[in-house]
Amino acid sequence: MNELKTIANNKKARHDYFIEESFEAGIELCGTEVKSIRSGRVNLKDSWCSIEKGEIFVNGMHISPYEHGNIFNRDPMRVRRLLMHKKEINRLYGAVKQTGYSLIPISLYFKGSRVKMQIGLCRGKKLYDKREDMAKRTAKRDIERALKEQGR
To answer: How far apart are alpha carbons 55 and 143 in whole angstroms?
Structure first.
């Protein structure tokens, strides 16, 4: 059984978008990028996915250079190719072009020894949706705090 070990989450994606559906994709890495990911030096905050010529790419993902690397370090902001089946890519392409959805990286994790990325087919939230989510989160936090104090 493959064990999942999450490395990075895109909290901003959950705040800014409704995630309609999620997909798992492999990611093509070079040089010392895997070592940097293992040490948790990756940021998905402002990243997005694009589909060009039947292939899917992740843009804006930052993988810090490995501190013990040298000439094998790559540009931290380079565009990286994702690995998915053609059928899935074509389906996502149709959803993005016809219905106006966005493809946003949600998380990066290890599945066994391989690096995988969860990407979401997302629809943007309006300002009032974001406020509603923040109010729910605050109310939940207040209830948990009150229950914790009552239990003392």
So the answer is: 46
Q: Do residues 1 and 116 make contact, with C-beta atoms less than 8 angstroms apart?
A: no
* Cβ–Cβ < 8 Å for 68, 84: no
Burial of residue 122, with CB atoms counted within 10 A of its CB: 0-12 exposed, 13-18 middle, 19 or more buried = buried
Per the listing, tokens 């998905």 go with: 44
CA 132 to chain centre: 23
Structure tokens at 103: 């493809």
Q: Is the model's pLDDT at 1 over the cut of 60?
A: no
With a cut of 90, say whether residue 23 has pLDDT above it.
yes
pLDDT tens digits, 63-99: 888 777 666 677 788 899 999 999 999 988 888 888 8
Count other Cβ atoms within 10 Å, centred on residue 74.
17
Q: DSSP assignment of 11-51, as one string?
A: HHHHHHEEEEEEEEEEE---TTHHHHHHTT-EE-TT-EEEE
SS3 70: coil
CA–CA separation, 73 and 67 (whole Å): 9
Q: Which one, of 108, 92, 122, 115, lies nearest residue 14 by Cα?
A: 122
Enter the tokens of residue 127: 């300002």
Tell me the β-bridge partners of 26: 83, 116
